C-alpha cells in the first residue's frame, strides 16, 4: 500500500520541468474544489517575535505583564 510519505518522496524527486504534468496527473484524484484546510485561529503566528525561552519561562513573563 502506498502511503502519503511514499508520494511525498516521489514528488521531491521530480524534475522541475515535469511539475505541470505531474500536477495534472494527480489532480484527477482530488475532489472538485480541492480539500480545504481547516481555518487556523487568528492567534497562530502572533508570537513570531517572542523570546526564545518563552515556553520555559512562561510564568516569569506572565508575572511581569508579558504582552501588555
* Helix-strand pattern: HHH
SS summary, helix count: 3
| Helix percentage range | 25-40%
Question: Spans of 5+ residues with little confidence (pLDDT < 50)?
Answer: none
Strands, total number: 0
Major beta sheet, specifics?
none
Mean pLDDT: 81
Q: How would you sum up the global shape?
A: elongated
| CA radius of gyration | 21 Å
Amount of beta strand: under 5%
Q: Give the helix/strand class.
A: mainly alpha
Distance between the termini: 52 Å
Name its key features.
68 residues; mainly alpha; 3 helices; elongated
Descriptive report:
The protein is mainly α and 68 residues long. The chain contains three helices and no strands. The longest helix has 9 residues.
Amino acid at each position: 500500500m502506498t502511503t502519503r510519505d511514499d508520494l511525498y518522496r516521489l514528488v521531491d524527486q521530480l524534475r522541475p520541468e515535469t511539475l505541470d504534468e505531474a500536477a495534472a496527473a494527480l489532480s484527477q484524484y482530488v475532489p472538485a474544489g480541492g480539500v480545504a484546510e481547516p481555518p487556523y485561529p487568528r492567534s497562530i503566528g502572533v508570537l513570531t517575535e517572542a523570546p526564545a525561552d518563552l515556553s520555559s519561562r512562561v510564568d516569569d513573563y506572565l508575572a511581569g505583564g508579558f504582552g501588555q
